[in-house]
Specification:
The chain is of the alpha/beta class and 480 residues long. The protein contains 16 helices and 18 strands.
Length: 480
Amino acid sequence: MNEENVPTSPDGIPGWGGFEFGRRLGLQAAAVMAASGALATLTDVSAAHAASKSHTIKIGFVSPRTGALADFAGPDSFVLSQIRASSYFSKGITIGKTKYKIEITEKDTQSLGNVAVQVTQELINSGVDLILVSSAPETTIPVATTCEQYKVPCVSTVVPWEAYWGGFTGGSISPQGAAVGTGPKYNSMFFFGVPQFAGCFVPMWERVQKSTKCNSNVAEMFPNDADGNAFRAAFGPTVGAMFPSGGYNFVDGGAYTDLASDYSSMIQTFKTGGKNGAACDLFINCPLPPDFQSFWTQASQQNYNPKLATVAKVMLFPTDAYALGDLSNNIATDAWFTPYSPYHSSLTGQSANAFAALYQAKGHGQWVQSMGSTYSLFEVAIEGLKRVTNPHNRLALARALQTVNYTGMCGPINMNLKSSNPLLASPAKGIGMIMPVGVQWKPGSTELVGHRKYKWSQWVVDNSLNKRIPLNGTLEPTNA
């Protein structure tokens, strides 16, 4: 394997890069494959694989178990134990008149793009029928584009759809934010994108504006990296198109360098840079966790206290909240899986709440969002396998996965939903939208999950995008 790396985003950690970031990752993955001689020997492995008579379905699972993205993969061992114990995976699945056993092989990307390409090639060489991959564009896009080149079905999650679509150079995104082009043949994914971020955050802004009479100035803490530049370009225009009556005034704090140490200038901009010299009462960001910790601490020390902080890329996991301590109070973010939802496993019928409670009871610590999306990857795999007559026919399986429509641990996932509501509709065939809810970190409460008490917990405070998930907390200003 050539040692050339497929670079992560400049921050090297979980990110929400847009189309161009995804396209760059896809091209870099292709370059690594070319450098290793992979593309030169590529044949129609899908057609050849279809002739297999094996009674074993081989699934590869790729995630960043170690390295900078490892928080996302923290629950993987537990989730895989639950998947393997479920009926389809422990007893087998009947397709046509043939009973197949299912074998799962796990691979760690070490949070590096070149390793993601390498382990994907290893799985393909071992004869897998399907690859599942999770956790950030830096992981999913190298895996997905490698699968596309080798004509192997792949399902991705925890990657904004815009970045995913950008990974395949045959597609593009229109100025209106719609997917353009034919897209991939062998890939599908489920998650959400910038419009869902806006649809999750802005209703919380509106409610806090009503309760506090705060202004419409929005502070933007966006770094000079792929993620920050993507948010800078897309978030304000998206909000303006979706919520034109809001009259939001976006104040850019400046394209700062990752791992900066002094945010005084930015804080001063947010304190006086709004309309008529007013402070920015609302706050949005997508920084590295250590950068947000530094900024938020300095902001408090310098008396910049926005009425509501809605953050992306940070504060997803309990580790983030504990690192900030009391300054975590009432910081809001998005949640794509919560144990407070009414959803159940399509494999076992287990509720989301019981799933999270078992995770905690077995000593794995506090539940995390990524456990739900990882679980749903395997639900989607089973739904696709149910739709084919030959599980070794990779093209047929890929096509089946692109039309999956079911409800499971993360709620309804429809890979080809036609809807007049652009937030719900699939941007393209093979893309399923999860509707996130708004959550806030609150201290000193007993969670509904297993009645455990944790110092910091995420509580659902806004369900504007998904009324099926009940509120169990009160939206409060981050700073009174």
